[in-house]
């Protein structure tokens, strides 16, 4: 599972002026790295309109709609660390994890992220992590 968290897909000290911009940034990483077609980004924004992808503890996990599965080439995630935060409706978000799951793999990915991020201490460590390796290590501890 740890191979899903790749150093080149983790962006430290990012900023976003809106949740739309944060979702677009997370989706752009997935598209540029070849996990999804570019249209998947629109699907991520559509999904956010249906219901928020904010999961609590300053974490959002934007992903595509059910109809967008055909746009996923392979499973992958992007991680954006937003130390200044961005508002997802009434909630401040400091970590955005973009997800593209192929063949149901997204459920396993979501589970791992949820387990890691259910601990406030882990979330604080993610927000203040100084390296991509540190972020990967925090998620791997949940295995």
Amount of beta strand: 15-25%
Quick one: CATH superfamily?
A: Mannitol-specific EII, Chain A
* Weakly predicted, low-confidence segments: none
- Record the strand order, biggest sheet: 1-4-5-3-2
From the spread of the alpha carbons, the general shape counts as globular
Q: Can you tell me the CATH topology?
A: Mannitol-specific EII, Chain A
Helix content: 25-40%
What order do the SSEs take from the amino end to the carboxyl end, as H and E? EHHEEEEHHH
**Total domains:** 1
The second-level CATH architecture is 3-Layer(aba) Sandwich
Question: Which features does this protein show?
Answer:
5 helices; 5-stranded mixed β-sheet; 5 strands; Mannitol-specific EII, Chain A; about 140 residues; alpha/beta
Protein described:
This protein is an alpha/beta fold. It has a single domain (2-140), classed as Mannitol-specific EII, Chain A, CATH 3.40.930.10. The chain is built from 5 helices and 5 strands. The chain has helices at residues 19-32, 39-50, 105-117, 120-128, 132-140, and strands spanning 10-11, 54-56, 59-60, 76-88, 91-100. Helix 1 packs antiparallel against helix 2. The protein is globular. It starts with 9 loop residues before the first strand and ends with a helix. The model has no long low-confidence stretch (mean pLDDT 92).
